[in-house]
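// run 5 | inverse folding | seed 20
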């Protein structure tokens, strides 16, 4: 097991946005978190990296290598982010400023994480760029000199630089057309298999859930209402809400939607 979330609650004043959530993610596993918009998926994922806004409070435990990361001081958390837990977002443009080249972003990132040797940084950058299918020379460009697809790959390369144990992808492909989305997801699957990093995949798109995940958790109103292997959850869902979600996914094969009715 690489991450264990125990009784995680995220509150906004009296309101519980995430309500006593427990789940475990195994090493190298593709873990899909699904649920309607507003169910608390993003807040849960941001609590893992201590990225929540100051108006929100997280309690419970997020165990990583024997420690509760919710208790980490800021500096220690900054070190953990990127190395242990990394994020890719829907808005990948936000990962880059137009004033620095991709390489300068990567250099800065590696230096803040204590990689002081230039040759080592260069090697790590080259490997990260190649692992997302970009030639290393692309790193010399500014973000606006890359196409949308290339820039998203570069943002994934940035997230992968330190070979994190867990990559959190929050609706990372939602804004893409289906061909580009599958290209990115196949790339993530490839990285999952080759590098053994776990993926916490947040989406509301069941097509992607069915195609890529190992394990699935369904979230509703801040709670996990059902969790299990893909086989179990897609073909023998127990909870009425899970069945409803599967039936409402118009792009799933009829075969799967029929099963969920029984
Ligand atoms: N910074 C915030 N402050 C207060 N409430 C928030 C904040 N961000 C999100 N919320 C609320 O928390 C709930 C869950 O949001 P979110 O985790 O973004 O849902 P999801 O990612 O599943 O669509 C929503 O009701 C949303 O309005
Ligand atoms: Mg969200």
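// decoded
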């Amino acid at each position: 097991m690489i991450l264990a979330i125990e009784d995680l609650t995220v509150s906004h004043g009296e309101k519980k946005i995430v309500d006593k959530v427990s789940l475990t993610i195994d090493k190298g596993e593709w873990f899909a978190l699904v649920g309607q918009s507003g169910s608390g998926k993003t807040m849960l994922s941001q609590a893992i990296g201590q990225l929540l806004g100051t108006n929100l409070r997280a309690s419970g435990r997020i165990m990583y290598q024997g420690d509760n990361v919710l208790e980490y001081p800021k500096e220690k958390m900054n070190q953990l982010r990127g190395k242990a837990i990394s994020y890719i977002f829907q808005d990948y443009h936000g990962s880059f400023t137009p004033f620095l080249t991709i390489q300068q972003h990567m250099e800065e990132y590696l230096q803040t994480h204590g990689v002081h040797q230039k040759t080592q940084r260069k090697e790590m950058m080259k490997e990260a760029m190649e692992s997302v299918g970009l030639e290393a020379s692309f790193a010399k460009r500014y973000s606006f000199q890359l196409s949308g697809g290339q820039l998203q790959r570069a943002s994934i390369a940035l997230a992968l630089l330190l070979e994190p144990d867990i990559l959190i992808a929050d609706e990372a492909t939602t804004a893409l057309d289906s061909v580009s989305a599958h290209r990115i997801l196949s790339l993530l699957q490839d990285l999952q298999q080759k590098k053994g990093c776990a993926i916490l995949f947040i989406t509301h798109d069941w097509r992607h859930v069915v195609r890529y995940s190992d394990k699935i958790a369904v979230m509703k109103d801040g709670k996990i209402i059902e969790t299990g292997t893909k086989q179990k959850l897609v073909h023998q869902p127990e909870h009425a809400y899970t069945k409803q979600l599967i039936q409402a996914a118009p792009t799933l094969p009829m075969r799967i939607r029929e099963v969920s009715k029984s």
